[in-house]
Amino acid sequence: MLTGIEQDALRRALEIAADPAVPLGPNPRVGCVLLSPAGVFLAEGHHRGAGTAHAEADALDRATAPLSGATAVVTLEPCAHVGRTGPCADALIAAGISRVIIARRDPNPVATGGLERLRTAGVDVELAVPEHLAAAAAELNRGWEHGLRHQRPLVTAKLALTLDGRAAAADGTSRWITGPAARAEVHAMRTTCDVVLVGAGTARLDAPTLTARRHDGTLHPRQPVRAAMGTGAVPELPSPEGAGEAFTLRTHDPSDALAALFERGLRHVLLEGGPTLAAAFLRAGCIDELIVHLAPTLLGAGPPGLADLGITTIADRLDLDLVDVAPLPPDLRLTLRPRTA
Description:
28% helix, alpha/beta
């Protein structure tokens, strides 16, 4: 079990792992805090992207006091392989660390094994962390872990709908269906994803910047890559100063688009396209999570929030599991995932 000081250290490790300056992509975000045998803070470190020191090595380098008998609190199991850097498990052992608290096991078959190496060396390894901190550690690298399992990015699709399922009015106007709270949440979502993806129609009609902004309208320090996909004439996305990279995917196939994004090292896609793009990804089985911002308003006409899925009978319906419901006054947020069983 963790002491109160150790829990505080894990919270800090999670906080620094999520540093907005750290690029998203093919590497996990990891934080590490070192405590003396008496529970005094010694040093902290975090991984800053491919090719940089791992969190444990970063913390060890920053420590100025002796580390014999110290505790390392890490958000992800220390690695046991030689890549661009040496094994973190070995570095902790060599430094004299006697206790390691791990919030989450490493699912990467190449890097795993650090826990066993630590225990073999006589280090006390603790995995029983509070559930909410373990959940935060899992949330930190959702896209990275999904990529390891499925060899494609995690896809979160976002829809803004009226109560009668409309995405826009009959004349095509859609700003704004939802209120300020829901729109602010979309900007926050963009900071947690590697890439925001829209279709050619949205790029042409709306010319969206797809940037992540704070409540005061300034750009957030973490900006997503921005992409549009289609096989016809796909206009370039506007690129205001400070926006993330923008490019076009010349395909209408969701699987091909995701393969291209994965090849670029992008691991979490936020799908913000219109009804046609969302339907294409659903038909292809390429949506892992659906966020619906539901506005308490009616239009009675206008384009639906989702294009034709090719379903002609109730037996073929696409069922979703409702994961969460949260108020975003005056709107409601539904979090759903396609049912796999």
